[in-house]
Amino acid sequence: MYQVNLAVGIGPFELNTHFYPHLESFGVITYTPGIGDHGIYTIDAEATALYTKGGIIKGIACAGNCSLHGVELMGLHINTILALLKGELYDVEHVDYADNTRHIVYCFESAGLQLWTSEAGKVVKVFIASHN
Predict the structure, then answer these.
(1) Pick from 70, 79, 128, 129: CA 20 to 30 A from residue 105's CA?
(2) Which phi and psi angles does 110 have, rounded to 5°?
(3) What strands, in cross-sheet order, belong to the sheet with 123-129?
(4) 67: nearest Cα among 50, 80, 52, 86
(5) What distance in Å separates the CA atoms of residue 9 and residue 66, rounded to the nearest whole number?
(6) Cα(75)–Cα(122) distance, rounded to whole angstroms?
């Protein structure tokens, strides 16, 4: 299980560090090029995606086993997490998909944290990003 360290990283992946040392550590990695020097490295076995700019990790998405303050986040109801993050300010966004499903995204800007939930309010993805 990967520990989420707000504004630092998730598990072995740290924001604002080079991605390349992870190439040998994790089996199959899929690369999806973005615009310019942006790209996404997906590590299927870890259910993790690394968003990079010029090979530097700028964002990390985790859809597998990750925890915050020792509490597993996947499948946890958002109200439980909001209680855990007591008083952290957040915005809410809605992402609608072509198949008529919707994710509700709780954005904690000061922590660089996004919690993506199902319509039922269960966490399905954790995303942290660098502010610079």
Answers:
(1) 70
(2) -65, -30
(3) 29-33, 38-43, 48-53, 56-62, 123-129, 113-117, 102-108, 91-96
(4) 80
(5) 11
(6) 5
Tell me the pTM.
0.89
Token pair of 128 as six digits:
């942290």
Question: Which of 131, 121, 127 lies closest to 48 in space, CA to CA?
Answer: 127
Q: Reduce the DSSP state of residue 44 to 3 states and report it.
A: helix
Helices (H) and strands (E) in the chain, counts: 1, 13
Read off the pLDDT of residues 12-59 as tens digits, 9 standing for 90 and up. Answer: 999 999 988 777 777 668 889 989 899 999 887 778 999 999 989 999
User: What are the backbone angles phi and psi of residue 34, rounded to the nearest 5°?
Assistant: -110, -160
Report the relative pairing of strands 2-5 and 66-68 from DSSP bridges: parallel
DSSP letter, residue 64: S
Provide the greatest CA pair distance for the chain.
Answer: 40
Determine the Cα–Cα distance for residues 104 and 99; give it in Å rounded to an integer: 15
Type of residue at 15: L
